Amino acid sequence: MHSDLLIVGAGYAGSVTARELADAGHRVHIIDKRPHIAGNAYDELDEHGVLIHRYGPHIFHSNGERIFEYLSRFTKWRSYEHRVRGVVGGASYPFPINRDTLNKLYGLDLDDAGAEAYFERVREPREPVLTSEDVVLNTVGRDLYEKFFLNYTRKQWGLEPSELKAGVAARIPVRVNTDDRYFTDRFQAMPLHGYTKMFEAMLDHPNISVELEIDFAELRNIDRYQHIVYTGPIDTYFNYCYGHLPYRSLRFEHEHLPNVQQYQETGTVNYPNDHAYTRITEFKHLTGQTHSGTSIVREYPQAEGDPYYPIPRTENESLFKRYEELASKETRVTFVGRLAQYRYYNMDQVVGAALTAAKQLIG
């Protein structure tokens, strides 16, 4: 048996790394300051018996066969393709924007070529494309930008699209066909019995011990561990010596609606221009659960609270680089995950980063 390792955080980054190290023969102790495993992917039955995602919707999608097969060791899957609508002027439209969005919004009858020509006609060419505003205006022009993106971005990030790096908007495609799926990845599915069950299976190993409601900052005697894998905010680890890295937080407003079979037509509906919340998700779409009622969640972005999204701005990246330089000198610590690497990772990307980190540690 190899020496002990400590892993800080029982979300994807920590749990995948823990399992890989345990399978390689290492004894692993994993801690989390929350009272549960699975990080932000944590799901549970609410008091009405509906399976909900406590920290907002998590939809697995990936083009990585290796990552999908890896997670398939710990769960069976339910095939699910996520669809989103955007409410503009009281009407609901497919989002991301596609040909049906154009035809319904403007009373047109475009085919694929007509939609492509429409976008070409209305776009505002930007060179170089540096910001999220540049991306959207360069692709769909000002009217669609103002209807679907501008106010949503303001709510989501508390910033103007012109203040955010191009990668934020580049995550959202624009289509000339009628494909209304939010993602087009090869693998799109939900863990059949939920994410928490998948994490339970992942951490079910004789070499893994789990301790919850433990804050790393309050942990004593960490010298007994041969190595530490840290998945929390990198600026917290270094006691904010260069200042706080900016993150965007969320407040979730969960609601159960008794005797309502279906609240909305798709899993998620965006509200770019109305209300203080950005979107509503109805979980039964995602899980396929049968229940006499339904449970929804509204998301309210906010500046304060648990860190969810690294804010993609050039000055924030520069600040992170200073922390990254400190991290590179920590020979006994590996930093991995969205918060530790200050990257806007999807779930599959976190799994990939954790598999890479584990491989390097195992040698």
Automatic annotation (TrEMBL):
Signal peptide: none annotated. Residues 147-344 form the UDP-galactopyranose mutase C-terminal domain. Gene3D superfamilies: NAD(P)-binding Rossmann-like Domain. It holds the Pfam family GLF. Its cofactor is FAD. Keywords: FAD, Flavoprotein, Isomerase. Belongs to the UDP-galactopyranose/dTDP-fucopyranose mutase family. This is UDP-galactopyranose mutase. It comes from Dyella acidisoli.
